[in-house]
Every structure is written in C-alpha cells, then in structure tokens.
Design brief:
single chain; mainly beta; Leucine-rich repeat, LRR (right-handed beta-alpha superhelix); 33-stranded mixed sheet; 7 helices; 69 strands; 25% strand
C-alpha cells in the first residue's frame, strides 16, 4: 500500500471503530436487558437475503453470523445504539455482496443509521438510489468501488450531518452541476470528500469554492474536470490531502504571495495546472507526499528543495527532466520513503558510497561524485525506470535495509547484477538494460519477493529452475530474452501457488514445464521463441483452464494436432510459427486476439468461428486452409480490427457482409484463389489502412470508389485480373494517406493516372521522427513487397516506407513530371508497359529513391544527367527501351552493371563497351 493511501487512512481509521470518540455512545453488544430492535433485525436479514455472496474478492463473508433468532447487535459489521437497540452503524465493506440495490430495499428502513460502508461489493450497475438521502442522521457514507452506475442523486445533499462522503467508483457514475452545487451548499460539516473516477465533466471548477471550510480531504482523481481550478482551494485552513490527478484538461496555477499551507498530500499528476517549483517548495512546508507526474513546470525546477525536508513520498516521473540526477537533493531527505523519477531523460551514473566516511547523515559530495556517510535507511520505494542511466548498479542499493520496490528497467545499465543483502525486497524490475553475467545467488534467497523481471538483458548460464523454489510468494516472474538455458529437473510439484504471470520466452527451453500442471491461478504464460519440439500434451490443455487469459507458445517447433481448446476465459492465444497440423482449433468466445499463422493446418474454417463475437485480431495466414470464406467473416468487422488470411487455399468470392460502423483496419487476403469482383461493402470499412488482395483471381475494373477511404495507406491488387483504364479521381482528395500502391501484373491500360499522383500527399513528405511501424498494440502489419525486383516478406513496415509498382500492365503514353513531387518515394516501378516519351529530368529531385525500374517500355531520348543526384539509388533499370546518348557517370551511376542498360543500342559510355564519340548527336530515329 502506497504512503499516499496511508496518509488518507490517518483521517479515516476511526470511521467504523467503536473505540473512537465519535462512537462512544454505541456498541456492537448491548447492555443487560436490551436487545436489537426487531424491525432492524428483520430489515438486515431481508437485506442479506437479497444478495448472493462471493468470497473471490472479499476479505470475509461478513454476513455469515447474521442468523434469525440471534441478537443482531452481535452480528459482524453491525453497531447498535446502547439504549434503544437501533442499528446506527453498518460496515459491509469487502463483504462479497452481489446483486442489485433497489429503491424498495429494506436497507432504507434503517432510519437511525449514522455510518454506512458498502464499499468494494458488486451491485451489478445499480443506480445510487435517492433513498440514500433519507438517512438524516448519517455522518459517514461510503459507497465506493461497488459497481454503481448512473447519476449521483441530488438527494445526497439532504445528509446535512455528513462528515465523510466517499462515492468513488471504477467508472459509469456521473455527477452533474446541479447535484454537486447542492452537495457543496448543504454539507457544511464535510471533512472528507472522495469522488475519484466520478464523471464530473459538466461541473464548473469554480463550484469548489463553496466547499466546507472544515474540509480536510479532497480526492478528485480522474473526474474529467476541465477549466481553471480555483487557487483559493490551496489556501483552505484545514485541507490536508488533495488529489486532482488524471484530470488532463484541468488548468490553473498556485498563488504566488508568501503564505503557508497545511497540506500534507498533493497530487497534480497528469493535469495542466502550472507548477512553480520555487513557490511550491517555499509555501507547502507540511508536505509529506507530493505527486507531480507529467505536469507543467514553469520557471526553474529542482533548483532547490526549499522547505520540503519532511517529504516522505515524491513522484516527479514523466516530466522530460534531463541531465544528471540531482542526488544531493534527494539523498539528504532523511524522511524520504518513496522516490519516483521514472520516465524522464536523466543520464549519468549512480554515485558511489565513500566507505571510509564516518558521517552520521546522508550527504553528497559534488567534488567526489559520491555519497558521504550512510545511505538513506528509510527508502522503501525507488523508481528510476525509462531513463538513460548508464554504468553499473551500485552495491549500496543492495544494502538498503527497508527497500521493498526497486525499478531500474529501460535504462542502459551494464555489468553484473549486485547481491541484495536486504530481505525486505518485494518488487525488483531490472529488465531492458545491458546487464550480464549470472543471476546473483542472493535473489534466490529473497523470500518476500513477489515480482521479479530480469527480461531483455544479457544474462547467461545454465539455470535450474528449482533455484527459485524458496520464492513461494512469487506472483510475476519474467526471465525472457536473455542468454539463459533453463531446465526443470527435480520439479514435480507447483512450488509457486501465487504465480499469475510467467514469461520464459527465449530461454532455450526444450520441454513443456511439467511443474505447471497444477497452476490453477495462472493468468499469463509466455513460452515463445524456445526449442520445444513435441506434441502439445493432453495435460497442457487443462492448465489453468479457469484462470488462463494470455498464452503464447509461438516460435517453437510444436507438432501434431491441437484438439479442442478448454480454456474458458482466454483473451490472447498465440501459436504462430510452429509445425502444428490438422483441423483449425477454435478458441473460446472470450478471445480477443488469435494468432495461428505459419503452421500446417488444413481443411475448412469450422463454422464455430462465427461465435467469436469479441474477436479483434484473427491471423490465420501461411497455412493450408481451404474452402470458401464464411459470410460471418464480414460480420466480425464490428469488433475485428485485423483479418489476415494470406497464403492459404481459399476460393470463391470475398464476403459482401461488411457492415456500417465496422472497425476493420487491416484486410489481407493475398495469395489465395479468390475470384469475382470486389464487394461494394468494403466502402463501409472507414477505418481501413491496409487492403492487400494480391495474387488471387479477382476480375474487376479499378475500384476508384476506394479513394474515399481516407485512412487507407496500403493498396495491393498485384497479380489479379483487373483491367481497363484507371481514369480520374471521383473525389476531391483521393488516397491522401496512401504509402504503398501495387497494381502490378494486371491488365490495366490507358494513360498513367496523373491526377491521382497529384494527390498522394503522404508520398510527398513522410519524414518521421524516430522509427515507427505500421500497426498497433499486439499486431504489426506484415506484407510481401517487391523491392529492387525481389519479393520480400516484411515483418515490420516503417511508416515512411513508400513505393509505387505499376509494372507488367498495358499503360501507354508519357511519364508525367508530376511524379517528381513524390519526394519520399523509396521505389518506383513502371517496367513492362507501353510507355513512351523521355524520362523526366525532374526525377533527379526524388532524393529518397532507392530503386527505379523503367525497363521494357518504349522510352526515348537520353538518360537525364540529373539522375546522378540520386545518391540513395542502388537499383536502376532502363533496359529494353529506345534510349540514346551517354550514360551519366559519378556517384551511384558508377556502380550499375551492363544489365541496367541492355537493349538500348543507342546508349554509350561506361559500363557499356561502346564508347561515346565527342559531341555525339543522337540519331533522328531509332528502332529497337
């Protein structure tokens, strides 16, 4: 539990504790001669019987002691008034209640209730009833995290005695301006207000000015607040805790005059409230927890820590801070418990400790770049992930006596992992660095360890998995993508009963880990990129059949058939790149992502695939599947984002069942035996970015109507039976985002579509900052692209990769110079057509061009000297044309061989053996 939560609990501990002063007149047992009021007892039993009880997420079944004939004042969670026997307190938090709370619930007959806690139950989306406003004596009301929905009723404002109100939810609850204003105006005694995750997007921030002056706690995390937050709130004399985090459109700033705030916890993470570090550190002298994740800083920041000497928890992550970490500021904070500097641009190395120092406090010596004196002994959480730190991990980190969570992932740290002397460690994340050597022995002794991630490093050695057997609290273990060789000898039982995530990808595993057979709580299992060469064993299909949601066995050598899949709640199944065969297995209806490409499955797609209504990604490519495509394939598009059936043996026509509102982004049917024409319903696929129908038997004219798909980036119609002229665009801005256009090996005729070339704006300038690939989330687009005359399977497509291939058609006429506007083009292929006229000299302006193929046409004139400016050009072919004159020389042109020019008897100069005559004039006519 974070220190932020602990601070909040300081204000709420007494809420249902009968020893607190506010509850001194009540008891869970009655004085002699008094029993629970019979009407209250009956109401409680009726309330209990209206719910089912689930212990899955509850601490206990609080109502198990509620039995007819027994004194209800002795029941768990029930508090009674001593003299009258009326129920005045009801605590069913984490009670496992499941069901609806209706407005006629017997709960609302408990008219004397002062304290009510229904938090962390499941009320199935019930609305918060206006009847809650009838508890006129209520001082504490907690309905948090219990799956309510709808609007918060204004009747809550009738609870004028409320001291604490917690209506926070996970989602689906709204609070409008009218109801909020009434709550603010009437609840004048309010000291604690928690509305986390309540949608308050319509509430004007100025409304908060009217909050009770007694307010100590204000939690407004992720409330969709927008506009300017009133700075006067920070002046409140009693306010101790305020959380405004995750309100991305909330603006404002701190007041600058000298003043002193009693705030102990402040969270402005992910807001647009301007943070002036100088004024904040000067005025907020009582702060214990400060969260400024992804904030807007003005002026100088971290120049000094001012009066924040008592800070316990500090989060400055994701603020683009750079340079070396100012260790002198942080390591001299004697009360510091939690420090998060992750997601910045910090560079440099960790300081070292001067072991000869006798100082009694943590100090940092700039001249020696090292710590002087003892390290901060209270440091419990240290997060430095997602920076650019280098060097080695210092040994003093391993001896922090209170350290529980350490994350150094995604840096550039090298050397060996240190030994950890402290046994308090629970979370250790060192993934995505350059760490090498063996896993240190001390890690196997950290018996409190729950999360261990060492993935994507250079760790090596043969590792007996049995070494982790002492870590019985492990919930997450990730050793993937190192140079380890794991074996599972001597492991016959499940040694890790809490294990939920296990990632052993690329660990040189040669067998299915048999010890997992009893892991009934396993949620995520990744064993990809290993060397398992075997049939899938029968026991494996029962592994975590009620709990498993993510399973990745891809890139192994699995053989045999799969059989019926038994996992009931599977979300993600990846069996790519194996040697599985037989009929296609169908995952459960809960599945979102299904990858089974690059296997040897045969036969038709079973009709049961139509039951996968939640499917978002379906990749069956590179198998031996046959038959016709089910009509339901089109209906999937309401949820389906990627449909990849490439390189199978499907025949028939493309289903015409794509419906309005679908979210299909990638449709790849390349290399099948599909015929007929394109279904017009493809036009409903407004999200389509990739359309690959190449290498089929489709017979149609050019689908001009596709130009209105504004997000289309890839159009591949290669090797079909398309025919006719392309014509002119039918819309004002056609194919604006198109980056890859392959119409080769068809029967298109007429002139090149110059009017289309004028609007290919994504090919004019597609420069990207950094490497970015097409696709999203779990799926990156793959396709076969012809590059420099070779068809290449590209597993990743850079977003700035652009190419046009119109080769092997019947295009005629001249090549327009308008093509030279496409300065981002990597490849251009117009070969094997009937093109005439000269090569445009402006082609020399396409500076990114890497291959240019104009061969097998009827081009005339010379090769423009401007083409020598194409310094990226590595493949050039103008063979079998009617070109004349000298071949340009210099730069890339000195690297091309004879076959680039063969069949042009009028050309001369290197690399040809024919030399050019001085001032040679081209002949007036030339016949090939």
């Amino acid at each position: 539990m974070g220190w932020l939560c602990l601070l909040f609990l300081l204000f709420t501990t007494c809420q249902f504790n009968s020893t607190c002063s506010s509850s001194s007149n009540s008891s869970s047992s009655l004085s002699s001669g008094h029993l629970c009021h019979p009407k209250d007892s009956s109401a409680l039993l009726q309330f209990k019987n209206s719910f089912s009880i689930s212990t899955l997420y509850s601490y206990s079944n609080r109502t198990i002691s509620w039995q007819k004939g027994k004194d209800c004042c002795a029941w768990s969670g029930v508090t009674c008034e001593k003299m009258t026997g009326h129920v005045i307190g009801l605590n069913l938090g984490f009670g496992g209640l499941q069901g609806n709370i209706h407005s006629n619930s017997s709960l609302f007959s408990l008219g004397h209730l002062k304290r009510l806690d229904l938090s962390y139950n499941d009320f199935k989306g019930s609305p918060i009833s206006s009847k809650f406003g009838g508890f006129v004596s209520m001082t504490h009301l907690d309905l948090s995290r219990s799956n309510f929905s709808g609007s918060i009723p204004s009747e809550i404002s009738h609870l004028s005695n409320l001291v604490s109100l917690n209506l926070s939810q996970y989602s689906f609850v709204r609070l409008d301006t009218l109801s909020f204003n009434r709550i603010v105006q009437n609840l004048t005694n309010l000291r604690e207000l928690n509305l986390e995750n309540v949608d308050m997007s319509s509430v004007v921030p100025d409304s908060f000015k009217n909050l009770s002056s007694s307010l100590k706690t204000l939690f407004l995390f992720d409330c969709h607040l927008r506009g300017k937050f009133p700075k006067s709130i920070f002046h409140r004399p009693n306010l101790r805790l305020i959380d405004l985090g995750n309100n991305y459109n909330l603006t404002g700033y701190f007041p600058k005059p000298n003043w002193s705030s009693p705030l102990e916890m402040l969270d402005l993470s992910h807001t647009r409230i301007s943070v002036d570090w100088h004024h904040l550190t000067r005025n907020f002298k009582s702060l214990r927890a400060l969260h400024l994740r992804n904030c807007t800083f003005v002026g100088s920041y971290l120049a000094f820590l001012g009066n924040l000497t008592q800070i316990m928890e500090l989060d400055l992550s994701y603020n683009s801070f750079g340079g070396p970490i100012p260790w002198s500021f942080f390591l001299n904070l004697e009360s510091l418990v939690s420090l998060n500097l992750g997601g910045n641009n910090y560079v440099g190395q960790f300081p070292e400790v001067d072991s000869n120092s006798t100082s009694n406090s943590s100090l940092y010596d700039f001249s020696k770049q090292q710590l002087v004196g003892p390290i901060p002994r209270h440091l419990t959480f240290l997060f430095l992930y997602d920076n650019q730190l280098n060097g080695t991990i210092p040994s003093w980190l391993g001896s922090l006596p209170s350290l529980e969570k350490l994350s150094l992932r995604s840096n550039q740290l090298s050397g060996n992992i240190i030994e950890f002397q402290s046994r308090s460690l629970k979370y250790l994340f060192l993934s995505e660095n350059k760490l090498g050597g063996l896993i240190p022995r001390s890690i196997y002794e950290l018996q409190n360890l729950q999360y261990l991630s060492l993935s994507s490093n250079n760790l090596g050695g043969n590792l007996e998995f049995e070494k982790f057997s002492k870590l019985r609290s492990l919930t997450l273990l990730n050793l993937s993508f190192n140079h380890l060789s794991l074996s599972f000898n001597h492991l016959s039982n499940n040694t890790w009963p809490q294990l939920k995530l296990l990632d052993l990808s690329s660990c040189n595993i040669t067998e299915f880990p048999y010890f997992l057979r009893s892991s009934q709580n396993l949620d995520t299992l990744y064993l990809s990129h290993n060397r398992i060469q075997a049939d899938i064993p029968e026991w494996w299909l029962d592994l975590g059949k009620d709990s498993l949601r993510y399973l990745d066995l891809s890139h192994n050598s699995l053989t045999g058939t799969v059989g019926q899949l038994r996992w009931k709640n599977l979300y993600y199944l990846d069996l790519r790149n194996n040697s599985l065969q037989g009929e296609l297995p169908i995952p459960p209806s809960s599945t979102y992502h299904f990858f089974i490409s690059n296997n040897q499955f045969t036969g038709e797609i079973p009709p049961t695939i139509c039951s996968l209504s939640r499917l978002q990604i379906l990749d069956l490519s590179n198998n031996k599947l046959s038959g016709k495509l089910h009509q339901c394939i089109g209906n999937f598009s309401q949820s389906l984002s990627v449909l990849n059936l490439r390189n199978n043996k499907f025949h028939g026509v493309i289903p015409g069942t794509f419906s309005e509102g679908n979210v299909l982004r990638n449709l790849n049917l390349n290399e099948n035996q599909l015929e007929g024409s394109l279904p017009p319903t493809l036009l409903t696929c407004r999200e389509l970015e990739v359309l690959d129908l190449g290498n089929n038997k489709i017979q149609d004219t050019f689908p001009n109507w596709l130009e209105s798909l504004s997000k289309l980036q890839v159009l591949i119609l290669r090797s079909n039976k398309f025919c006719g002229e392309i014509g002119i665009p039918e819309t004002k801005f056609p194919f604006q985002k198109l980056r890859i256009m392959d119409l080769s090996y068809n029967r298109f005729s007429g002139h090149l579509p110059t009017k289309y070339f004028e609007h290919l704006t994504a090919m004019e300038n597609s420069q990207e900052l950094g490497l970015k690939y097409m696709g999203e989330g779990y799926y990156q687009d793959t396709m076969a692209v012809t590059i420099k005359g070779f068809e290449i399977e590209m597993e990743k497509i850079l977003t700035f990769f652009t190419t046009i291939d119109f080769s092997n058609n019947n295009f005629r006429g001249e090549i327009s110079s308008v093509i030279s506007k496409l300065k981002s083009l990597k490849g251009l292929n117009f070969s094997h057509n009937e093109l005439t006229g000269p090569i445009p000299p402006s082609f020399g302006e396409m500076s990114n061009l890497e291959w240019l193929d104009l061969s097998s046409n009827k081009l005339v004139g010379d090769i423009p000297e401007q083409l020598a400016n194409l310094t990226s050009l590595s493949k050039f072919n103008v063979s079998k044309n009617q070109l004349v004159g000298p071949i340009p020389h210099g730069k890339q042109f000195d690297t091309f061989e004879n076959d680039s020019y063969s069949g042009n008897t009028g050309l001369c100069g290197l690399p040809l053996s024919k030399t050019c005559i001085a001032h040679q004039s081209p002949p007036s006519s030339f016949q090939q």
